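Weekly sync, protein design subgroup
Attendees: M.S., D.O., the rotation student, P.L. (late)

Item 1: inverse folding check
M.S. brought a backbone from last month's batch and wanted to see whether the design step gives back something sensible before we order anything. D.O. pointed out we never logged the input encoding, so this time it goes straight into the notes. Structure tokens as presented (326 positions):
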């Protein structure tokens, strides 16, 4: 599906100064059954590195208020454990922990990337903190797997992005008479993910209503000159609906566009900065959506077009889980 939203913003672009140990947690007093839990991962990218959470089913079903039965963090890159085919010689990742005793069931969930997503309180996985808000592409499992020493894990974990990715590009209209360079864009704290909470109804992690206090800004690409022939990538941001969006969908977002402008390409450039509202009210964005915004600079206005694009690391990451042969 593709759609474009056109927004005209009068900006009067005149040359005026506008300036995260691999941990193995054992259940208290539990003895393990003899069959080792193993995980084999298939993904298209080396990153992100996943954290796998294994729960006792009774704990999982009643709400994950205690620490997991086991936590596994592969030390190799994710493709070190890739499944190529059913008869391949891929290396299974051994979690270092057997299934629970007495044929009890374990439940597997997960999130990524570790290092940037971690428990807000040690050993308490009901809430996760996210570092690098705006820059960290978070993934969480949207389903779960059940397994035991009698019926080992089988099937796939499906991951999704509990954020919206915005890729921003910039270009000049052919008849634009001024010169623009070093364009950046900023996103306010109210649209940035700082933490995830386990949702027992959905059985997955979802964004909390907590927000930080820091604005995210794309990096300045030194001397990058915007022209009318190329769409220059300014940056990408991972955002969530603001706290005022009660339906959990993004109807709009305000971004701040900054840069330098001059009447001649070698002339004196003057800084400019403006707030630009982007509206998606006709078809609000949801978590796991990915859009490209094109800033089209004209003499006295900016035209913004929004186009749906696929995630580079797709919305579904397959995580087949296989048993060890007895």
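Designed sequence read out in the meeting:
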């Amino acid at each position: 599906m593709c759609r474009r939203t056109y927004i005209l913003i009068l900006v009067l672009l005149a040359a005026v100064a506008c300036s995260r140990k691999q941990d193995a947690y054992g259940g208290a007093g539990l003895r393990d059954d003899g069959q080792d839990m193993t995980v084999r991962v298939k993904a298209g990218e080396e990153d992100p590195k996943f954290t796998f959470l294994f729960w006792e089913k009774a704990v999982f079903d009643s709400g994950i208020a205690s620490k997991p039965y086991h936590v596994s963090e592969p030390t190799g890159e994710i493709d070190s454990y890739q499944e190529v085919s059913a008869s391949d010689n891929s290396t299974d990742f051994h979690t270092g922990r057997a299934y629970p005793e007495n044929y009890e069931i374990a439940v597997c969930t997960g999130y990524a990337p570790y290092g940037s997503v971690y428990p807000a309180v040690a050993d308490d996985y009901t809430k996760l903190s996210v570092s690098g808000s705006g820059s960290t592409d978070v993934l969480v499992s949207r389903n779960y797997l059940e397994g035991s020493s009698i019926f080992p894990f089988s099937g796939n974990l499906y991951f999704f992005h509990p954020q919206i990715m915005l890729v921003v590009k910039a270009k000049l209209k052919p008849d634009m008479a001024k010169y623009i360079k070093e364009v950046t864009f900023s996103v306010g704290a109210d649209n940035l993910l700082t933490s995830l909470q386990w949702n027992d109804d959905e059985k997955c992690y979802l964004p909390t209503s907590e927000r930080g206090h820091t604005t995210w800004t794309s990096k300045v690409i030194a001397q990058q000159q915007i022209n009318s022939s190329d769409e220059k990538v300014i940056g990408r941001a991972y955002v969530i609906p603001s706290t005022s969006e009660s339906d959990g969908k993004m109807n709009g977002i305000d971004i701040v566009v900054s840069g330098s402008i001059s009447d001649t390409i070698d002339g004196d450039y003057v800084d400019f900065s403006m707030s630009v509202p982007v509206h998606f009210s006709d078809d609000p964005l949801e978590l796991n959506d990915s859009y490209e915004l094109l800033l089209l600079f004209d003499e006295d206005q900016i035209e913004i077009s929004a186009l749906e694009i696929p995630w580079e690391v797709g919305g579904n990451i397959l995580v087949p889980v296989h048993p060890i042969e007895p």
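Discussion: Confidence is low (pLDDT under 50) at residues 1-31, 41-46, 77-87, 314-326. The first strand starts at residue 7 and ends at 10.
Action: P.L. to compare against the previous round before Friday.
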